[in-house]
Amino acid sequence: MARSDPGMILVAGGAGFIGSHLVARLLDEGNEVICLDNLQTARPSNLKLLEGRPGFTFVEGDITLPLPDAVTRHADRITRIYNLACAASPPQYQVDPEHTMLTNVVGTHHLLRLAERAGARFLLTSTSEVYGDPEVHPQVEGYRGWVSCTGPRACYDEGKRAAEALTFDYARAGRAQVRVARIFNTYGPHMHPDDGRVVSNLICQALSGRDITIYGDGSQTRSFCYVSDMVDALIRLMEWRSDALEPVNLGNPNELTVGELAEQVVALSGARTPLVHRPLPQDDPRRRRPDISRAQAELGWRPTVDLAEGLATTYAWFAQELAEERVPAEAA
Ligand SMILES: NC(=O)c1ccc[n+]([C@@H]2O[C@H](COP(=O)([O-])OP(=O)(O)OC[C@H]3O[C@@H](n4cnc5c(N)ncnc54)[C@H](O)[C@@H]3O)[C@@H](O)[C@H]2O)c1
């Protein structure tokens, strides 16, 4: 690569929820970006917002397979690889658990090999799910987790744990510079309306006047990070000057119960929608709150969008999608 060439950035999973925001921001900053995605959980409308933008290339491909030539032929120009490729919502990653596991292990391996060949820096989006149903609260990076390796979520949780192990092995062997983000619940526009994640579920139910479903008694807690804050954190982490072999928690430490979240969504809708309780899914974590001290100290990052503001923006976005009928009937 010529010295004056700023190179290219590869974003695997760039047509998904977080990926589409990340790609847009990287393009805004003047980068050339290749988005590699198998379109498994991507929304076509996310991709439409990116197509045609200067510097953007879309390559359809599955990272569990050898990477397409349309990507590898740019190896001498790729300087950064973000790996966001993996269905993130439980109903979606449980549809084909074998593929979810292979995406995390084999897919991450393919991208790490490309990083090694290209001399590119590699960022893995891991997850708070590596902590399982945590006994330590809030969750610090040093906590090793309480995860079932036999349950229905294991394809994702254990897949991500294996992906972290592989990523740090590459770094320890001096084969690639790596960064590992442990992402906690993130929400915002471009989410799939019917993928079973709590924020999109509640908003779509409220908008369509259907009953609001709460799993369990609603006392389980979560902490929600708005997507623009997450994208900012991912870019800071990628550009972090340290090669420390440490994962970094990224999320919003503002913790609330799912019941409280539902009340906020109902208040936004202005309707008196009934709340209906359903059984808790197996292995659902009871508490989730990131300790983000490391991200604050090392990346100078903390979330800036509060929940009321982020929820209102997300609600308005879903309302617009519904008005333009981009939300499938079963979700609305
Ligand atoms: N959104 C969250 O709250 C959250 C929380 C923790 C971790 N994460 C992680 O962040 C990343 C992005 O999450 P998201 O919410 O944007 O999910 P998403 O499902 O919206 O996006 C994932 C993207 O990856 C693509 N993909 C899946 N498997 C692939 C494969 N084998 N090959 C190529 N492309 C593939 C999908 O088509 C989709 O476009 C995921 O790795 C997820 O595990 C997200």
How is this structure best described in words?
Pfam families: Epimerase. Residues 280-292 have a biased composition (Basic and acidic residues). InterPro entries: Epimerase_deHydtase, NAD(P)-bd_dom_sf, UXS-like. Residues 9-251 form the NAD-dependent epimerase/dehydratase domain. Residues 276-295 are annotated as: Disordered. The protein is α/β, with parallel strands linked by helices and 332 residues long. The protein has two domains: 8-186 and 225-250, 3-Layer(aba) Sandwich (Rossmann fold); 191-223 and 254-287 and 306-323, UDP-galactose 4-epimerase, domain 1 (Alpha-Beta Complex), CATH 3.90.25.10. The protein is built from eleven helices and 13 strands. The chain has helices at 17-28, 44-50, 69-72, 90-93, 97-118, 154-172, 198-208, 227-238, 258-269, 293-299, 307-323; strands spanning 8-12, 32-37, 56-60, 78-83, 121-127, 178-183, 186-187, 212-215, 221-223, 225-226, 247-250, 255-257, 275-278. A seven-stranded parallel β-sheet has the order 3-2-1-4-5-6-11, with helices on both faces. The chain is globular, with a radius of gyration of 19 Å. The model has no long low-confidence stretch (mean pLDDT 94). Nicotinamide-adenine-dinucleotide is lined by residues 12-13, 15-19, 37-42, 62-64, 84-88, 103, 107, 125, 127, 183, 185-186. Residues 12-13, 15-19, 37-42, 62-64, 84-88, 103, 107, 125, 127, 183, 185-186 line the site of nicotinamide-adenine-dinucleotide (NAD).
